[in-house]
């Protein structure tokens, strides 16, 4: 099978012919139909997440068809379409797993980091962490739901019942969760890189009441802020425009250091919290609500062999929505 392989951090992915994997007990073999490109992939490739298995097939926003089933799997049958997210395996035994917090499992393994992912024609995945996806979505449109959508949804959950929400970084995750938040009746303010008028226009098209630069003041204070951009300086910036008792949610797996800021900006019971991974509950809830909204994805497609081009576009901030890789057999079909 063809795959794009990371052999060392900060190096381009290499197109490689690999043997098609076989599913172990509890796994399914999936013929990949589409795999979206996530900022976390960029953190892995650029060496900011420092412990990937190498060599590695990246990619954790996978949509594909089950073609072989390992021993003990009765959840799916061959031919089923499934999605595969970042959280790829948990032990089921630790305190976190037994208390409904499997996203914090002490032995968790992650798709496209500890486990080979979807920048390939085939991948194996733990059947417990594969999810049916509504047939209302094409393969390409469904792929970004599997991380950008799921992590965005978990971040939104952490905002509680906040009525006015700021979205910092209007990329793949924000453009999806903005639609859910508007469906729930919340008012949204989008913060982009200063001068990024294209992203600001995109945010307004998706229902944001206001859009401006990350250093601009919104027209009203925020009840909560969801930070999707990996820039630690946005944390104090968001605190400054958040009401007493408000919450600033850091939604990325990697972020640059948060600079020092006066305690006054945190005082009055403001909260800073992070989002780690996802749970199966997050996936089930989001994948149920997405077609009801309906959440529409904005995507740019690339053939699998051009994964490095897609990563470069993401790195440069030149994507509107999400990039999606298509394997050779399905490209232009």
Give your account of this protein's structure:
This protein is an alpha/beta fold and 333 residues long. The chain has two domains: 198 residues, Medium-chain alcohol dehydrogenases, catalytic domain (Quinone Oxidoreductase, Chain A, domain 1); 125 residues, Rossmann fold (3-Layer(aba) Sandwich). Helix content is 22%, strand content 26%. Helix 4 packs across helix 5 and helix 4 crosses helix 8.
- Total strands: the figure is 17
CATH class of the largest domain: Alpha Beta
How much of the residues is beta strand, in percent? 25-35%
> CATH topology of the largest domain, what is it called?
Quinone Oxidoreductase, Chain A, domain 1
Number of domains: 2
What's the helix count?
9
List the keywords.
2 domains; six-stranded parallel β-sheet; 333 residues; single chain; Quinone Oxidoreductase, Chain A, domain 1; alpha/beta; Rossmann fold; 26% strand
Secondary structure elements and pairings:
Blueprint: E1 2-5, E2 14-17, E3 27-37, H1 39-45, E4 61-69, E5 81-84, E6 87-89, H2 95-98, E7 109-110, E8 122-126, E9 131-132, H3 139-142, H4 148-158, E10 164-168, H5 172-183, E11 187-192, H6 197-205, E12 210-213, E13 222-227, H7 234-240, E14 242-250, E15 271-274, H8 280-289, E16 299-303, H9 307-315, E17 322-326
Parallel strand pairs: 10-11, 10-13, 11-12, 13-14, 14-15, 16-17
Antiparallel strand pairs: 1-2, 3-4, 3-8, 3-17, 4-5, 5-9, 6-7
Helix pairs in contact: 4-5, 4-8
